[in-house]
Amino acid sequence: MAGSSASAEGLPELADNAPEDCPTTGTVEWLLAAVEDLSPQAMEQWPGIRSRFEAGLPEGEHLFVTTILEAEGGPFEYIFVSVNSLRGTKLIGQVASEIMMIPGVRHGDPITIMEEDIADWVISKPDGSEEGNRIGLALEHYSACDHDHTQGARQE
């Protein structure tokens, strides 16, 4: 997810002041522990978020989920997926993160993930604010980007 418009075809265009998706530094163990600790809290709200998505989000709102994408026998990345549709327990969407370590996967690529593999969710709003993103808020303190916290207020 990026703070300006999405460059890959089919990805939603976000508000110019939407929070920027930034690489996070830290150990693998720390990242996995953060996901393990915070994901259950985020996923308690998933059934309601899913229902809202299925009913149709208001104009300009977009649903993203996060998941851990792993390369076979190699590295992994914590990524955003722009959700286009739900089919049973499958989420069909597009990679909304800039991929740095997984060969053959690029920003904008189609992707299908299982509901059980969701780590977190976020709804991006047309005014630049966000709803959800518990893990992202925790990871923000360890990101490689400078954040202007006056832009894109986040909601929970």
Give an overview in words.
With 156 residues, the chain is an alpha+beta fold. It has one domain. Helices cover 21% and strands 27% of the residues. The protein contains 3 helices and 7 strands. The chain has helices spanning 28-44, 46-55, 134-139, and strands at 62-70, 76-87, 90-95, 110-114, 120-124, 130-132, 154-155. It has a 7-stranded mixed beta sheet with strand order 4-3-2-1-5-6-7. The chain starts with 27 loop residues before the first helix and ends with a strand. The relative contact order is 0.25. The model is unreliable at 1-7 and 147-156 (pLDDT under 50).
Secondary structure: elements and pairs:
Elements lengths: L27 H17 L1 H10 L6 E9 L5 E12 L2 E6 L14 E5 L5 E5 L5 E3 L1 H6 L14 E2 L1
Parallel strand pairs: 6-7
Antiparallel strand pairs: 1-2, 1-5, 2-3, 3-4, 5-6
